[in-house]
Every structure is written in structure tokens, then in C-alpha cells.
Amino acid sequence: MYKILSKKPLNKTVTQMEIEAPLVAVKAKAGQFVILRVDENGERIPLTVAGRDVSRGAVKIIFQIVGATTAALDAKSAGEYITDFVGPLGVPTHVDGISKACVVGGGVGCAIAMPIAQELKRLGANVTSVVGFRNKDLVILQDEFRACSDKLVTVTDDGSYGEKGNVTLPLKQMLDGGERFDRVIAIGPLVMMKYVVATVKPYGIPVTVSMNPVMIDGTGMCGGCRLTLVRDGKRTTKFACVDGPDFDGYEVDFDEATARGKMYCDFERAAHDRACNLFKNAGGAQ
Amino acid sequence: MSIDPKKHEMPVRDARERSCDFDEVALGYTAKLAVAEATRCLDCKNKPCVSGCPVNIDIPDFIKQVKVGDFESAYRTIARSSSLPAVCGRVCPQEKQCESKCTLGIKFEPVGIGRLERFVADTHMASAQAPAAPPPSNGHKVAVVGSGPAGLTCAGDLAKKGYAVTVFEALHTAGGVLVYGIPEFRLPKSIVANEVRQLKALGVEIMTNVVIGKTLTVDELFDMGYECVFIGSGAGLPKFMNIKGESLNGVLSANEFLTRVNLMKAYMPNSSTPVRRARKTVVVGGGNVAMDAARCAKRLGSQVTVVYRRTEKELPARKEEVEHAKEEGVDFVFLANPFEITDDGNGNVGSVVCRKMTLSAPDESGRARPVPLENSDFAIEADCVIMSLGTSPNPLIRDTTSGLDVGERGGIIVDESGKTSRVGVYAGGDAVTGAATVILAMGAGKTAARAIDEYISGKKDQCGMRNQ
């Protein structure tokens, strides 16, 4: 059992928690993930490590309440326990040797982008952060990004906070204006990452993307998280859990990844509706 | 007295009834049937059956004890050599091992050794004996990586000798392939849980949710005071065919499908883990894993076709599993191999296009090599394809452990005692051989336990000599 040390809502649908897992806290690096189960019959879900506090043995996770499992997790309070918590899994984001970086985060993907920006800053890199959200109610981690970025641009789809538009807009403006980066690191919805890659491509800047496919074991056993990389026309199968989650943005077959992401959509929608009703009723009873 | 030429049949549940649920298929011998079957044993002097057993159970001895109705002694005889008798009695390919050597088998059907082993183990378990108390400690610590058949056997053997053994398991439940891979109807999870309980009673500590190579490395295990590390981390990444359409929704590895169904209990209506409930499933491959996947898919309500590129004779699966699958209504297409999976127009599997094969001269594995026949393509309609083509070893440990030599295919290289290229590190099971059987993994765990004991005792002796 793993204790929930703290819990803080970042907005209506995004929650931050610290879980007591000393072995994971010691090892976790930016870009890695954990797999957790909320309770005995729960599913295994991957969540990216959003930070750690080794002295307290704490691992920070930030999650969006999107399905039954994240709803069940969100229903837990600080001081309560979850059944399983394993990690750190995956390969850490390569941050060495980058002197000027642009970190692009979309929505809850900012929770993954933030520790990477922090790590780059810690290593002495010049960090530009571009973060995007649907609207001002969904904006998260502004203070954290401000603290670790030399330049921060925030955009919202509807213009209710920061500039109006999506992340590719300021990115393109900067690049057109002559800004250059050693690397762009993009984390967010697949469609956002796909368009960041397309935006950056003409400038020949390397792009790292962080993939978050369906996973079960997370240790290279089931193959559920497979995706295709295309290099010089040759297609290779890779596994996000052990080969990733970071990949070269120019090589990822985003269309295939998007299609594969819909594999269990119907099941998930039904489970989510059941969970919503369950927690709504539980909430109403209090 | 004349000998019955045939094995006593083991009662099984009706195929139509069992193919709709996940309860165990075979019901096991009754005491009467077991004694009758034991009576068929010729008790021959040279005991060829023992040489066919990877863990060298004294088979004629335990059968003699069954014959006289002393089932508990029979259990103790088996337990001397095997840590997991209830498991092996169910999943060992006996027809290729002990029973293939049986003298009676030259003329008649061999003695049903596997069925007798299962009976003895189940009878022991049902009598609810108090588990064995831990033996006195010898003060030495050994780490075991992975709680599958290799790891559990190695841990059990070392614990019996007084070692303090910690087993590190990456998943949330101990048992490895016995819980994530082999389905409930073939090996009930309660049996695995019971075997794990027995080990804990011997003092073995099991730490779940620890991935060696990630959470801790092999080096750190030595730093923590473990004198030896046994790696039984099992099979790794599933193999795919690299054919067109393999990334369509509905194509999954047998590992993924079985993990969803077994470990995550997706067959239960209240499970949180989704599984595709297909209408028509094609399983590609002919091993035990393919049979397990096919029979699980059948139980989830799908029509199932197994496509295998050789003939029925070459099927690597246990004969009994193939028979059971057929009885349950699984179809087989032999001498065919998929070469494309078509899209139904919505990104899902629509059909599997196969090419007919013919067999030519044997390849390096000694099996007839399948060769595609030109202009022989045919399609099988499907909305789910399960690839059961074996696995390649997991990279996590080899990539994080210095001085550990691995072979061309990524398997850890060991000598005949299970010793790796790194001092104090031993390995066995699928992590070494690639996908193989439960009993071979157990054999490897056993051999390594012996070598670890010799290594640590040897170190002790050397220290003693230096101190003198």
C-alpha cells in the first residue's frame, strides 16, 4: 500500500498528489513515469512523474480526471492509500548538452513538461516555455513555469488567458523572428505534438515528443504500447514503456498512434459514465 | 494380472459447458482412479521416467506410495524435488518428458504421471496441512529477480537451506507467467497463491512493484548486502510479424490479451481493465500460449481460428491443450501464414489474408521448414488478431547491469550451473532461453539454487581459511 501524502486540485479536472514511494523517489528523473493501481480490482494506469522530494520519499503526480480510474484516484484524500505504485519506468528525457531549449506543453501535458523545463534550467540551459490550454479555467502550473523559464508564453484556445491561439502560433513567430533552439521538447495531445513537429521542421531543429499510449505492465512484456517509427522510409516497431516514452518527433507515425489510442474508447466511455454517477452520488450523500 | 493398455481418463467438464466460463477444465483423478492408474506402473529398475523430468522427481517412488494409498508420503517424495507440484501436474508437457520415457509406453499408453502428480498435490492441499516452518537461518542473503516458476523454485530451494531470500516482482501479484499468462481454467490462481503462501511460510520475502533495472539495479542489490542475485525475469517483448496492417486496432500480442484476461481479470464483469470482445478472432501461432489465447477468446464469446504455418504434427503445444481447444470449438487452419491484415474501413481489423504453405526440408531447429505457395492467398474474416509468435528477452536488466554477457538474441548467457559472466549473478528460465516451458524454468531455478549454495558455502570456506 502506498500513502497519499498530499492532494491539491490544480483546476476543476486536474489534481496533484504526492505518493509515498521512497524507492521511486530516489530514482525518478524528468520524463519517466510510474504505473499505479488505485484498488485491488483496479486497472494499471501510467502517469508521468511530475516531481519528487527524496527527503520525504514523495513522488508527485499530476493527473486529469478523464476516466473511471482517474476518477477513483481523485476520490481518495491525503492520508489514504492506493494499492500499487511502481517505477520509475521508461527512459529519462535527454537533457544533457542542450544550451537553449524550447519546452512546449499542452493541457495536462504541462505536468510532464514542467519537470523537464526545471531540469534543463538546473543544468544551466536557457529555457523558453510555451504552454497552451483550452481556456483560463484549465491553466495550471504558471508559477512553476515562470520560475524555471527565461521566457514563458501562455496561450489559450479562446484567448481567455494569455494570447489567443494554440502553441504553434508563438512558436512559429519566434522561429520566424530568428530565434533558434538546440532542441524543441513537446508534450501534449498527439495532434498538438504532430503540429509542433510540422511547425519546427522547416527550421531543421530536433524535436523530442513524449508518447503516452495505452499500457498495461509498463516493463516491456505486453506490447500494448507499441508505436511505429519511420526512418528513411523504413518502419520499425518500438515500445513506449522501455524504448520511450520520448521519441524523435520526426520519426513518430502520429496518425497511427492516434488511431491506436481509440482502441478501447467505447469501454472507457461506459466505465467513465458509471464512475461519474458513482462519485456524483457519493458526493451528493455527504 | 494383465495391464490396462490405456491411461485412466481424467474427468473433465463438458466442452460445451466449460467453453462459456473460466472455471477449471480438468477435474483431476479421484483417489480410486489414482490408485488404479498407479497400479499400471511396472516399477522398472532403470527408472527412465526420472531422466525425462527436468527436476528429477523420484517418479516410481511416489507412484508406489500412491498405489498403497499413502498420498501424503507421495507428496513429500515429489516436494523433495519440485517446489510447485500442483502447478506442474497441470501445465507440464508430460508427453514430451517423463511419460515419453515410460517403459510401458513402448507397447501401451504410458503411465499418467502428470495426472498422478496433480492428484497427489491437490490431495495434500485439500488436507490443509500447516505450512512448513522456516528452517534455521544460515545468515546469508540472496536476491531473486522475478516470481515466476524459475524464481519461485530458486527461492524455495534456497530458503529450505536457511538462506534469507527476497524475491523482487515487477507486477503487483507474485507468480509471473503463472498468473499473467496461464488462464484460470487451466491453472486456477488460487493454486499459485497457495504455492506462494508455502514459500512465504518458509521465510521467503516477496516484494511486489519493484522493477529490477529501474527501481533498483543488480549493483544496488549487492550494495544492500545480497551475496548472490538470481535473474528469472522471464520473457520479454512480444514478437510481431512486421506485416501490413499489424498496427490496426484489434491486433494484439498474446501477452497483452492474456495479461488483460488473466492478471487484470478482464473476463469478470466488474473488472476495470478493458478487453476486446471480438466476434471472430484469429490466433497466429501453435504453442501453448496460442492455445491459451484461443481458448480465452472462445470463452469471451468469439469464434476462434488458429492459424499455424506447419501441420498439426508439428504443433508445439501440449497435446491435451490442442485436444481441449478442439473440443471447445476452436478451428485450426494448418499450413497457412498471414501476410496482410486488412482494414475494415474504420482502422479496425477486417480480415486476415493468409498464404498457403508447404513443408520442405528441416531447418536449423530440426523442424520441417514452411515455404509459401504462390497464388494461394485466402482471407479469413476477423475483428481481432492475436499474435502468439514468442518473445524476445526483456532489455531492462541487461541494459543496466555491467559485466553481464548476453547472446545474439538478447538472452543472458549462462553455463550449465546457471552462472552468468558476472560473479555472484545467476540466471535461468525464459530470460536465458527465450520462451520455453514452466518446468524448464523450474529446472533452471533449481540448478542455479544449487550453484548459489555451493558458491556462498565456498566463499565461507575461503574466508574461514583466511582467518586461520
Please explain how this structure is put together:
The complex is a heterodimer of chains A (286) and B (468). Chain A has 286 residues and is α/β, with parallel strands linked by helices. Chain A folds into 2 domains: 88 residues, Translation factors (Elongation Factor Tu (Ef-tu), domain 3, Beta Barrel), CATH 2.40.30.10; 161 residues, Nucleotide-binding domain of ferredoxin-NADP reductase (FNR) module (Rossmann fold, 3-Layer(aba) Sandwich). Chain A is 30% helix and 32% strand. Chain A contains 9 helices and 16 strands. In chain A, the strands form 3 sheets. Chain A has a 7-stranded antiparallel beta sheet with strand order 6-1-2-5-4-3-7, with helices on both faces. In chain A, strands 11-10-9-8-12-13-16 form a 7-stranded mixed beta sheet, with helices on both faces. In chain A, strands 14-15 form a two-stranded antiparallel ribbon. In chain A, helix 2 runs parallel beside helix 9. Chain B has 468 residues and is of the alpha/beta class. Chain B folds into 3 domains: 112 residues, Alpha-helical ferredoxin (Fumarate Reductase Iron-sulfur Protein, Chain B, domain 2); 171 residues, FAD/NAD(P)-binding domain, CATH 3.50.50; 153 residues, FAD/NAD(P)-binding domain. In chain B, 36% of the residues lie in helices and 16% in strands. Chain B has 19 helices and 16 strands. A 5-stranded parallel beta sheet of chain B has the order 3-2-1-4-16. Chain B has a 5-stranded parallel beta sheet with strand order 6-14-7-8-9. Chain B is globular. Chain B starts with 14 loop residues before the first helix and ends with a helix. Classes of the chains: A alpha/beta (286), B alpha/beta (468).
Please name the defining characteristics of this protein.
heterodimer; A: alpha/beta; Elongation Factor Tu (Ef-tu), domain 3; Rossmann fold; seven-stranded antiparallel sheet; seven-stranded mixed sheet; 9 helices; 16 strands; 32% strand; disordered C terminus; B: 468 residues; alpha/beta; Fumarate Reductase Iron-sulfur Protein, Chain B, domain 2; FAD/NAD(P)-binding domain; five-stranded parallel sheet; 19 helices; globular
